[in-house]
Amino acid sequence: MIIDLQRFIRIERPVWTELEAVLNRLEAEPNLKMSLEEVQHFHDLYERATAGLAKLTTFSSEPATRQYLESLVARAYGEVHETREKRRRLQPLKWLRQTLPQTFRRQIRAFHLALAITLVGCAFGTAATLIDPESRHVTMPFGHDRLKPSERVAEEEQRTTDQLTGNRTLFSSRLMTNNTQVSIFTLALGATWGIGTVLILFYNGISLGAIATDYVADGQVRFLLGWLLPHGAIEIPAILVAGQAGFVLARSMIGWGDRTPLGRRLRAVSRDLVTLSVGFALMMVWAAFVEAFLSQYHEPVVPYGAKIAFGTLELVALIFYLGRSGRNER
Amino acid sequence: MKGSALPIRTPEGIVFSQTLAGPVVRFFAWLIDGLCVMALMSFVVGLVRGFGLVSPGIANAVLAITGFVLNFGFSIFLEWAWRGQTIGKKLLGLRVVDADGMRLQLEQIVTRNLLRVVDLLPAAYLVGGLSCWLSRKCQRLGDIAANTIVVRIPVVTEPDLDQLLAGKFNSLRQHAHLAARLRQRVTPVEAGIALQALVRRDEFDAVARIELFEQLASHFQTKVSFPQDAVDGVSSEQYIRNVVDVVYRTSASA
């Protein structure tokens, strides 16, 4: 049997139009809160439209109207059946005080994994530098292999002119964008079931281990700490947080021991992924400022003791913040 | 790409489908967005150039940060503000939606755009394109991770039956019992084809139109055989017009 399309549309059209108006309102005002009566009426409209679609699909042959109803039902379906909390206005202070540290702690196992892989990389870099000092050409980035640590320290401490004069802001912005990009890459490679994330963290560990061993072996521990700690106290944890986010993504994609469908697993962690991403981006911005405006100055301009104290303070504050902040709040 | 439509079954038992966008059209949408980013960047360069005379360091820093923010933020901002659309997607009639039909969340938008860096590898969207091609839901890696799909938005136009059928005498209606039988025997797909042929009649050239309506008329004549007096002097196109009238309108008064 084929329904009388004209009559059917004439009767149902006001319902569809009303549903469309409600949907337009909901889409235009994401923070809209409907009263119970409005919600019930919206649900009634949705039910009526789905019933209409069922009728059209079964009895009618009119593809244009069916397409229209399908698109209407598709839009309404998401609004009616969505169970995730609707995002209200941004609350940056609450986000900083609670959301980020709580998310970090909730996914702490992924952070431990990122830390462990980096430490293994460090050990590898250390061993490589001790066993085969020539390997520094491969393990050390940014031209660190060109000078011996003691030669670089002497050069830096005797420098009378500021190399970054006039370019400090540019240097800082380049560090900011490059490091954040590398962190995003570390997170995004979680989509390769975490293989890419492991490789980046491991290579970072190798570089760190190789450089640290090189300076320690050459007796330049104070310079190393004074140079690395002020920005590294935030930058290295930021890369680890990016790795943590990458592993959270990888775990959801693999779904090891979890029988829930892929879509649901990913939906469950999507908010945590974005929280961690914003977290590591902010950390990278801070680290870039410190690196450009403090880390590049050495004795006699800035005493190493002050730089080491500043870096240690940052690290303790970061540990305290990520470990304690928002602990007693829901 | 395994299928062009993704059916979604609601708890009420209703099935609706989303028409998936293919990798090529998505690539063009991305190219259009890329051009928009370049245009915006040129605008910023123009603005900053004057300032660069005073402080080149700060001017270059502003450019570096603007480039980075535009690179990642352009699509995130527009997809959030326009509910899954960017300029390129709007122009090509595409939209990002949740793969399960749910409301698109900011987290999903951010995730799919951050993961673009992997989809772009090694160049020209190769990873993303391959993933899109192989995936059942035509998803690049970013879409898989964010549980989103990109769909084509259908342009919905209601056919005006009154205008299509008005003012014509329908000889088939003289035989009410046969008309009822025709209504019963014609399948929804067949009726849809006949209606679409009438709606789009002006798009065909004359010869093709005559051939099409002849084929359709001979097909519908096999469904129900009307007496000679009902079909004498009725062209194939008029015959189809009468069939559509019978099938879609249960009363002759409309």
Structure at a glance:
The complex is a heterodimer of chains A (330) and B (254). Chain A is mostly helical.
Secondary structure blueprint with pairings:
The complex is a heterodimer of chains A (330) and B (254).
Chain A: H1 5-28, H2 36-59, H3 63-81, H4 92-106, H5 108-131, H6 136-139, H7 149-158, H8 168-188, H9 195-217, H10 221-254, H11 262-295, H12 304-324
Helix pairs in contact in A: 1-2, 1-3, 2-3, 4-11, 4-12, 5-9, 5-10, 8-9, 8-10, 8-11, 9-10, 10-11, 10-12
Chain B: E1 5-9, E2 15-20, H1 23-52, H2 56-81, H3 87-91, E3 94-98, H4 106-114, H5 116-119, H6 126-134, H7 141-146, E4 148-152, H8 161-165, H9 176-185, H10 188-199, H11 206-221, H12 228-231, H13 236-248
Antiparallel strand pairs in B: 1-2, 2-4, 3-4
Helix pairs in contact in B: 1-2, 2-4, 9-13, 10-13, 11-13
Figure out the total of helices of chain B.
Answer: 13
Beta-strand residue percentage of chain A: under 5%
Largest sheet of chain B: 4 strands, antiparallel
- Number of DSSP-assigned strands of chain A: 0
| SSE topology string of chain A | HHHHHHHHHHHH
Q: What is the average per-residue confidence, as pLDDT of chain B, rounded to a whole number?
A: 84
Rg calc of chain A: 28 Å
Q: Which strand order spans the largest sheet of chain B, edge to edge or round the barrel?
A: 1-2-4-3
Give start-end ranges of low-pLDDT stretches of chain A.
Answer: none
Number of domains of chain B: 2
Number of strands of chain B: 4
Shape label of chain A = elongated
Kindly report how far apart the N and C termini of chain B lie.
45 Å
Main beta sheet strand tally, sense and closure of chain A: none
Number of helical stretches of at least 4 residues of chain A:
12
Query: What's the N-to-C terminus distance of chain A?
Result: 57 Å
On the 0 to 100 scale, the average pLDDT of chain A is 86
Secondary-structure-based class of chain A equals: mainly alpha
Largest interface chains and counts: A-B, 66 and 73 residues
Number of domains of chain A: 2
